[in-house]
């Protein structure tokens, strides 16, 4: 209900993530967790003002700082539910971390990033570059 793009993006990331998790021979339980994690990875964006989410054109540094907080917001939202595994909450928290430490919110590196979040980062970027956004068209035809 919050945002059509975000909904479609979440479904796409879930499909890509499940394909990768299967290819990597994850167990059924892990595949279920990573699927839920993918569907909910950007849930924290519900706390980012819609004017920033939908802004055409480049974000200011301050707006980008606000967008970055969706990772922490998402983690906090998911942590409230006892039935949601920690690994699922970590997907929201860590999907913008990068192996070289250049990501956010914590600048974690390599083995400190949850394996689900690493896969989600690949799916997330793949969907971002193959989708049309309000501020640009896809880099590649999808
Ligand atoms: Fe995100």
Question: Notable features of this structure?
Answer:
single chain; 142 residues; mainly alpha; Hypothetical protein af1432; 7 helices; 56% helix; 0% strand; binds fe (ii) ion
Overview of this structure, please?
By secondary structure, this protein is mainly α. Helices cover 56% and strands 0% of the residues. The chain contains seven helices and no strands. The chain starts with a helix and ends in a 12-residue tail after the last helix. The model has no long low-confidence stretch (mean pLDDT 92). It has helices at residues 4-23, 28-39, 50-53, 61-68, 70-79, 86-94, 115-130. It has one domain (4-130): Hypothetical protein af1432 (Orthogonal Bundle), CATH 1.10.3210. The longest helix has 20 residues, at 4-23. Fe (ii) ion binds at residues 42, 70, 95-96.
* Outline: globular
What is the level-2 CATH architecture name?
Orthogonal Bundle
Q: Mind telling me the CATH superfamily name?
A: Hypothetical protein af1432
The distinct ligands, each listed once, are: fe (ii) ion
Main sheet properties: none
Strand content: under 5%
> Helical proportion?
55-70%
| Average residue pLDDT | 92
Q: What is the element layout, followed by pairings?
A:
Elements: H1 4-23, H2 28-39, H3 50-53, H4 61-68, H5 70-79, H6 86-94, H7 115-130
Bound molecules: fe (ii) ion.
